[in-house]
Design a protein that fits this description.
CATH topology of the largest domain: D-Maltodextrin-Binding Protein, domain 2
Oligomer: single chain
Strand content: 15-25%
Order of helices and strands: HHHEEHEHEEEEHEEEEHEHEEH
Radius of gyration: 24 Å
Number of domains: 3
Number of helices: 9
């Protein structure tokens, strides 16, 4: 049984690190030992588990299918061992996370960088895309998404609420004035993400609701580009309060129509299944909630 576990742990590290020699260094054993363990596992499985070339190694389709079970089994076993030995669990292994490009760069990247510093045995593969892939097929442990989800079969957990607010640079507002309400902003220069072009629906502090026809002078399919335009003084944008929290704190951007904001858009964590959440997923969720709550709306 011990040999079987060593083979499974070795296979897990081989795939994560992409080579036999890297796995050998990581495990503290010789290259011949790693090669022998992989060959033994393939012999028992009856299929080839990895494609080998002189420069790289990658899992076969059968290897990926086996790895999904290996990850789950070894994580559960490790957690049980840690509970027995020390009464606590330490995250380890590879955590695969998917997040939107802009949100992931601003918020998720710092979170996972902090986690790998805190937990020496944890590795992270962060994949930034505005498209939501099939979590099982892409072998994603947790995906972070914002707003309502359509036809998602994944298990969801809300991390925070995100409100969008109107913001512009001080230079723009010095030149064109500081609107106190959304209606006072009509006629201003709008900057817009390629979101379909419908009116912006905003809620006021007294419960009033208005729709603003924000026909843009500048439009882009990338939120970072729109933010760059706003910082450069080209107009007013509607952006998540969480995303512009640093810009507001540093005075690079100002609120337009203070007290007005969009309805909340929930930020979700998605999992392929709720049956087994690994320790590495749980520590990520806890860290994400802590960061997003600290950056959340503290004013209307």
């Amino acid at each position: 049984m011990l040999d079987d576990l060593n083979e499974l742990r070795t296979f897990q590290r081989i795939v994560a690190l992409g080579s036999l020699s890297a796995a050998a260094r990581d495990l503290g054993v010789g290259l011949a030992v790693v090669s022998k363990r992989l060959a033994s596992l393939e012999r028992r499985a009856g299929v080839r588990l990895a494609h080998r070339t002189t420069r790289s190694l990658s899992a076969t389709e059968e290897g990926l299918a086996l790895l999904a079970h290996v990850d789950q089994a070894l994580d559960a076993l490790t957690a049980a061992e840690l509970r027995l030995s020390s009464g606590r669990e330490e995250p380890r292994g590879l955590l695969r996370i998917s997040a939107p490009v802009s949100f992931g760069r601003i918020h998720i990247a710092p979170i996972v960088a902090g986690l790998v510093e805190r937990y020496p045995k944890l590795d992270v593969d962060l994949r930034l895309s505005d498209e939501l892939d099939d979590l099982v097929e892409a072998r994603i442990d947790v995906a972070v998404r914002i707003g309502p989800l359509v036809d998602s079969t994944a298990v969801m957990r809300k991390l925070a609420d995100s409100h969008r607010i109107l913001v512009a640079s001080p230079a723009y507002l010095d030149r064109w004035g500081r609107p106190r309400t959304p209606m006072e902003a009509v006629g201003h220069r709008w900057l817009r993400y390629a979101d379909g072009g419908g009116p912006w629906r905003l809620e006021g502090p007294d419960g009033a609701v208005v729709e603003v026809e924000a026909r843009p002078r500048l439009r882009a399919a990338n939120g970072d580009v729109v933010r760059d335009w706003a910082l450069a003084g080209h107009g007013i944008m509607l952006k998540s309060r969480i995303d512009v929290s640093a810009d507001l704190a540093l005075g690079r951007l100002e609120r337009v129509a203070p007290g007005w904001r969009s309805a909340p858009a929930p930020i979700f964590a998605l999992f392929p299944s709720a049956r087994h959440l690994s320790t590495r997923v749980r520590v990520f969720i806890d860290a994400a909630i802590e960061r997003l709550e600290a950056l959340g709306d503290h004013d209307a």
